[in-house]
Design a protein that fits this description.
Strand content of chain B: under 5%
Largest sheet of chain B: 2 strands, antiparallel
Structural class of chain A: alpha/beta
Radius of gyration of chain B: 24 Å
Helix content of chain A: 25-40%
Largest sheet of chain A: 6 strands, mixed
Number of helices of chain B: 9
Number of domains of chain B: 2
CATH class of the largest domain in chain A: Alpha Beta
Strand order of the largest sheet of chain A: 6-7-8-3-9-10
Order of helices and strands of chain A: EEEHHEEHEHHHEHEHEEHHHH
Number of domains of chain A: 2
Order of helices and strands of chain B: HHHHEEHHHHH
Shape of chain A: globular
Number of strands of chain B: 2
Bound molecules: adenosine-5'-triphosphate, magnesium ion
Distance between the termini of chain A: 42 Å
CATH superfamily of the largest domain in chain A: P-loop containing nucleotide triphosphate hydrolases
Strand order of the largest sheet of chain B: 1-2
CATH architecture of the largest domain in chain A: 3-Layer(aba) Sandwich
Number of helices of chain A: 12
Structural class of chain B: mainly alpha
Strand content of chain A: 15-25%
Oligomer: heterodimer
Chain lengths: 284, 247
């Protein structure tokens, strides 16, 4: 598959800071894939998202080096306004993601479509659909300023996916959500992938990351330690040294392996816990 | 849809009416004419069912201004024709006339705009301005300011609570509260500045600067009366000008 986003030796430092926040980042993101970016706090995940969406260098100036390509075209050739339709970005902080000009959640979700000039009849239809997809129909008449953190996070997600961008960049969408809400958000993201969207997700909850993503990118202090298929990355020594949490099944399996229990393969999803030991038991 | 004959008018029809009153009292020097607008505005307010807040707002704000202006003119306007005196001041006929004409105009114009803001929804008004070519950025600034004021009030309460737990006194005498002002204000301003940038990014992520024409769920309807009334205003203004110049 062709890469939809390509970064080649990208380095970046914020205007006021001395040091490079991202260092020689090179990566390829394939069209239609679900890629998760993991790394510890401050490793540069949000900064990387800002670069992918073009907010760096449009909003945050600073020094940006290297080549960034979107769909084979250099990022600098796109105008910021054009990118809105192509790349949706749900940010980490749900409290600032409110337009501030709409009185109800319904209007808030519709705002992006109004800006894109979508005909009014279509707006009603699309907003309805997204409200039920994200399960926030009950909030439709509420004032966006009067929502809880989790509710805001859902509204923020709805406001972006309603615009139907080809690429979704989602930065910690579940930080304010309860476990069921989190699971549900992942289901929505999976659905988006099934509709052919490219997904770039930042998330700390490794169980879900491993369950859903095709590929992992591991960031550490602004450098890409490794990129590849989820299972390969989790099985690698590099990941082991990166001080990032494993999915629970993987951690248990690795511990058992250390104790001498042979593994058929490295499990990364809860459902694999039985099969990964199976063959050995049969042999004995 | 709103059935009230006044409230259901297009926002610009209401706005032009306030402008119409302003221009008319400038053209016609007669203070009785200008004062006569006030009962007319009251009738309109009554039909729109806003008479009570309209009058109480005028009493609380405009009235004080009018009294001060009137007394200033009465006592200090230079004139020959002395009609009375009080303490060391002379009251002149010129002062009286000038006071009346000035206050009549302030009352007419002031109450016309106060009524305007009573009978228009600011969101509708901004939408109407956008429809006639105001740039979306300008519209955004007005609307977001309206929305953010209550949000900032809420935030300043939170900050005050936070400062209280750090030992800053926020209740009590005026001086105590004045001292608390800066520790409260500084974080409020700083956080507002920080959120401005984030808000700009939020807007951008909602395609605010997308090329092409925007659409809107919020539609204003223009009925025939909204097309006719502005011409009626213009007609009357032209009539008044002709009357002033030729008669
Ligand atoms: N606007 C900014 N100006 C200057 N430095 C910044 C700015 N935003 C982030 N940084 C710095 O860049 C580094 C990476 O921050 P970033 O927000 O990308 O991390 P992150 O991986 O998203 O962390 P988290 O998991 O906490 O969200 C941090 O050291 C941070 O201090
Ligand atoms: Mg982050």
């Amino acid at each position: 598959m062709t890469p939809i986003i390509q970064l080649d030796n990208v380095s970046y430092s914020y205007p006021v800071s001395e040091d490079w926040i991202l260092k020689n980042v090179s990566l390829d993101i394939k069209k239609g894939s679900f890629v998760s970016i993991v790394g510890n706090n401050g490793s540069g995940k949000t900064t990387l998202c800002n670069i992918l969406r073009g907010f760096i260098p449009h909003f945050h100036k600073g020094d940006l080096e290297g080549a960034i390509k979107l769909d084979g075209t250099d990022m600098s050739e796109y105008q910021l306004g054009q990118l809105g339709e192509k790349i949706g970005f749900v940010f980490q902080n749900p409290f600032t993601q409110i337009s501030g000009v709409k009185d109800t959640v319904f209007e808030e979700v519709a705002y992006g479509l109004e800006n894109l000039g979508v005909p009014v009849e279509d707006i009603y239809e699309r907003v309805e659909e997204v409200l039920s997809l994200v399960k926030i129909q009950n909030l439709r008449e509420k004032n966006p300023f009067e929502l809880s953190g989790g509710q805001r996070q859902r509204v923020a997600l709805a406001s972006i996916i309603v615009m139907d961008p080809d690429i979704l960049v989602i930065d910690e969408p579940s930080s304010q959500l309860d476990p069921i809400g989190t699971e549900h958000v992942f289901e929505i993201i999976r659905l988006m992938k099934e509709r052919g969207k490219t997904i770039i997700l930042v998330e700390h909850k490794m169980d879900l990351v491993a369950e859903y993503s095709d590929e992992l990118i591991v960031l550490d202090k602004g450098e890409v330690l490794i990129q590849g298929p989820t299972r390969d990355v989790l099985a690698s020594d590099v990941f082991n040294k990166a001080q990032i949490q494993y999915p629970h099944v993987t951690e248990i399996a690795l511990e058992l392996q250390k104790q001498g229990v042979p593994l058929n393969f490295l499990p990364i999803r809860d459902s694999e816990i039985t099969t990964c030991f199976e063959n050995d038991r049969g042999n004995k | 849809m709103n059935q009230n004959p006044i409230l259901s008018l297009h926002p610009l029809t209401k706005f032009y009416f306030a402008l119409f009153i302003t221009v008319s009292v400038i053209i016609v020097p007669n203070y009785i004419f200008a004062y006569a607008w006030f009962p007319v505005l009251m009738i309109i307010a009554a039909v729109a069912k806003v008479a009570k807040p309209f009058i109480s707002f005028i009493l609380k704000t405009l009235m004080i201004l009018l009294v001060i202006v009137f007394l200033m003119q009465l006592f200090f306007y230079p004139g020959e024709d002395v009609i009375g005196s009080w303490w060391i001041f002379d009251l002149t006929h010129e002062g009286l006339m000038h006071g009346l004409s000035l206050t009549s105009r302030i009352l007419a114009i002031g109450s016309a705009f106060i009524l305007f803001f009573r009978i228009v929804d600011v969101k509708d008004f901004v939408k109407a301005l956008e429809d006639i070519g105001m740039p979306p950025t300008g519209a955004y600034i007005v609307l977001s300011t309206l929305q953010i004021i209550p949000e900032m009030r809420r935030q300043s309460n939170t900050i005050m609570e936070a400062q209280k737990t750090r030992g800053v006194e926020t209740d009590g005498s005026l001086i105590v509260r004045a001292k608390a002002f800066f520790p409260t204000l500084t974080p409020l301003i700083l956080s507002s500045i920080a959120s401005t940038e984030e808000r700009a990014i939020t807007l951008e992520s909602r395609a605010f600067s997308a090329p092409g024409k925007k659409t809107s769920l919020h539609k204003l309807t223009k009925r025939p009366i909204d097309r006719v009334l502005p011409w009626v205003y213009i007609g009357i203004i032209i009539g008044l000008i002709i009357w002033r110049v030729f008669l």
